[in-house]
Write a structure and sequence with these properties.
By secondary structure, the chain is an all-alpha fold. The protein has a single domain (9-118), classed as Ribosomal protein L20, C-terminal domain (c-terminal domain of poly(a) binding protein), CATH 1.10.1900.20. Helix content is 76%, strand content 0%. The radius of gyration is 26 Å and the shape is rod-shaped. The N and C termini lie far apart (82 Å). The relative contact order is 0.09. The mean pLDDT is 95.
Length: 119
């Protein structure tokens, strides 16, 4: 098998790794071996935390909806159940946004859910 010299390929790979870890501290952005490990951990954390961020945002939306719903004399669970019964297709993100920016519109939604629960 012929000999293959990989100088430019390796340098290109090393430069890509160092560029990706340019914001890391100490030897993590200088030394290839340490930088590569740092990059692997950073990518793993980024993947996992994207899911965590979705989870936290949903929890925040539910908290906001519950607080706004209780101002109208209904709980979060009752609100969601009433909306399902009345075939209102608003997701939690939109409901939370309505609760904050458009309180009058949210009160209409809450009244719709209440009326669906009583009938």
């Amino acid at each position: 098998m012929p000999r293959v010299k990989r100088g430019s390929t390796g340098r290109k790979r090393h430069k890509a790794i160092l560029k990706a870890v340019s914001g890391h501290r100490a030897s993590r952005h200088r030394r290839i071996r340490v930088a590569k490990e740092s990059l692997l951990h950073a990518l793993a954390y980024a993947f996992a935390h994207r899911r965590t961020r979705k989870r936290e945002r949903r929890a925040l939306a539910i908290t906001r909806i519950n607080a706004a719903a209780r101002l109208h004399g209904i709980t979060y669970g009752q609100l969601v159940h009433g909306l399902k019964l009345s075939n209102v297709l608003l997701n939690r993100q939109v409901l939370a946004e309505l609760a904050i920016t458009e309180p009058h519109a949210f009160s209409e939604v809450a009244m719709t859910a209440k009326s669906a629960l009583t009938s």
